[in-house]
Amino acid sequence: MKFKISDYLYPFEIFKLFRFLNRSKGFSYQQLVEYQNEKLRSIVHHAYNHVPYYHELFNECGIKPGDIQTIEDLPAIPVLTKEIIRNRYNDLIADNADQFNPYENMTSGSTGSPLKFLQDKNVSIARFTFFWRIWKMAGYKPYMRWAQIDGMHIGSKENLWSFNRTLNSLQISSYYLHERNCKQILDKLSDFKPKIIRGYPMAIFMVSQFVNNSSYTVDYPVKSIITYSENLLPEYRFAIEKAFNCKVFDVFSQWEGVCLISECEKGELHQHMEFSVMEVLNADNKPAEMDEKGEITATSFYNYSMPFIRYKTGDLAIRENTSCSCDLNHMVVKKISGRKKDALFDTGGNLISFKGLQISNKDIYDTVEGLLQSQIVQASLDKVKVYLVVKNRSSSERIEKEFTKSIKSRLGDEMNIEFIYADSIPKRKNGKTPFVRNNLLNKV
Ligand SMILES: [Zn+2]
């Protein structure tokens, strides 16, 4: 969720969309679907008339753009995979792409190779405005002081933060965050007194665990904490909410800008239906049942230079057929169960999504008190290595027991576990620290 400076340069467009989003917030589910149908017809017509790949695909499948009238008709169009984008890149570019002011964007490709794609100026505008809506839902008001702990501020060991006057924001580098400078960062936060803190869950968890494991107290009121870009593990949420005494709002999106899901004040996850159509598909690319896990597949309304229609994101989710008691009538997502790459092989060779320890309540959270950072690395089909950073070794036995229980219950009793204690866990260049690293994934 990084924004380029140019994202702020379209105040008129941003304001116009924001005004619409304020209005559509009151839409019924049916009105939201009608809005989606209209947006869908427009992108499908454009794709057929201007994008060689889709023109060819529709003809091959015997589809006319007029056949796709509603989101119910979408399954007629074959899905778009990362592999197709790599192989047919030039054919996916619209012949009138220039008029949408696109720029070349790229995913980090932390496993496998990066994915390159074109993205319209409007995607930046939409992303900025929808995030503004999400921040507002979390209590943000213009000019409020906020702090950000993520990979945006590059920083250095000596220069951990910078102040952005325009944004009224303290930007803290997650890359150089270490147990030894947590106090320095907490003192700086205490001077600045942010109302909202945003950032990578692991980084905020680390700072929170410093508070929870010491006599340090956060003596200023924080309205809310917004997390994104990494999995918010249950233990992270417990620790962060305890340390800062406020609610965590988790946000889920992808760099490709195709789907946006965020948590409301009731703690439910909502898909922002004005942003895109989201489907959850099973392994056969058929709609997953409610309560069944499937892959998030989305159709973006904002990218005309390179339309992504039924794009398979590689992220897994479970839908729920329910409504929420908050103001929003958007689709409710029961759970985002990690990314395909956040998965480990069990001893039978099956890929199992692994999203944190099985911590579902405060009591279990207490069993891992003293845990500062952790990472599970799959070394072979029958062995995982667990890297742990702990406050002191007296808590080791308790923590190892909890990890062993969680790992064996999901990956099999035969799984060998090696615990390795470290001072810190290496971060990626973008300052992120994934909880799961599967070294075998790229080899299968
Ligand atoms: Zn809600």
TrEMBL record:
InterPro entries: ANL_N_sf, CapK_Type1_Caps_Biosynth
Membrane-spanning intervals of the chain: none
PANTHER family the UniProt entry points to: CAPSULAR POLYSACCHARIDE BIOSYNTHESIS PROTEIN
UniProt protein name: Phenylacetate--CoA ligase family protein
